[in-house]
Amino acid sequence: MSNPKINLVAADMGYGHFRAAYPLMDIASGNKIISINNYEGVPDWEKKYWENSLKSYEKISRLKKIPILGYLVFEIMDAFQKIDPFYPNRDLSRPSTQEKFFYRVVRKGLGKDLVEKLNDSNLPYLTTFFVAAYSAEAYNYKGKIYCVICDTDASRSWANLDSDDTRVIYLLPSEKVKERFMMYGVKESNLIVTGFPLPKENIGENQEIIKTDLAVRLGLLDPRGSYFERYFPLIKNYLPEKNIATRPLTITYAVGGAGAQKETGLIILDKLKDKIIAGKLAVNLVAGNRPEIKDYFLQGIKNLGLDSNVNVQVIFDADKIGYFKKFNEALRTSDILWTKPSELSFYCALGLPILISEPVGSQEDFNHEWLLNLGAGIDTPSPEYVAEWLPDLLESGRLARAAMDGFLNAETMGTYNIDKLFDK
User: Are residues 219 and 170 located together in one domain of the fold?
Assistant: First the structure.
């Protein structure tokens, strides 16, 4: 085990906070992520509080599909965590309703036990969850406190209540988010633009892994060579010589932690079944660590007569860290990532074009806009017609362009940049 440099704290709710923490495990105490809601010895009342919060969020996320009533219930919840429009530049330092709500619970002791357990470690406290940052500051954590921002923009709740006098140092994905936090009243000295932490096993210290994988991917994404012919000097400047792929074009479809939009995965298989059987296409369905999603996918695959096809895989592991490892390994031989615009939006930096499913929540609306502005994401037409529009995207070179745009325009080295902060 390497010498620990940080206490790494996240929330084990959904995937976003844990996924952002995963690439930093090698510098963490015990090489592990400490879950604020599920660590050894967590007070019963705190565990119960977080369990109820997660159940409520997942239930409401799934309700969104119900016409009128479900939509209204979701909109009410989403208004609670809404991100204000970026323009015009203005003072947004007034605390939000969501923030005041969580601070009331923190003042009742939420997070206090964990801070006291970690306080004698003499290590910096780094978290990917804003409530954990609240608790660390409220209960006087002795070391420095860092908070990683997990989306392309962030609501006021990510900046602590006394934003102009906070000890928390924010690690930000972009300069634009730095401007946002200055609107929230955070001092510039507390803001460091690092980029989002992506998995090292998909990048390489000198980007050697990402460049090798992208060189293969471009050949599959640009079958007619339309993008390659037009942008050859650009490609040659950044990537090794284009390699001939020995595998079929591969789509990885990922559902969120609440299991929303799982039905789309089986629609993709159904509509592309002929190409899968012919060996021209492979599909990974990502069930994460949710056994009910895994079972849903496996039954659907069986019903389609694809259960023995090597070009259809379900990515699952009951352990969340095990799932991340399998998912990241699968991405190396994936060519398209099809997902709602969650924290996985940042994975476009790996040279993966993002096919964007419907956003769920205010933060995903901003991630969606970010992907489109970057050129790395493409809104998906109806999955029912994927057999018609996917070939068009391939033949035009649009997916190849999205892959390169993500690689060139999104920050790939966030994890290494964060590591360097603790080498001093």
Answer: no
